[in-house]
Amino acid sequence: MSLNLVPVRRVARLIVVDACNSVLLLRYNEYRANRPGMFWATPGGQLEVGEQPRDAAIRELREETGLSAKVGRRLWRKAFTFELPQGLVNQHEEYFLVLSPDVTPCVHNSSSEPIRELRWWSLAELESTSEVIYPTGLVSDLQALLAQRAT
Question: Is residue 42 part of a domain?
Answer without folding.
Answer: yes
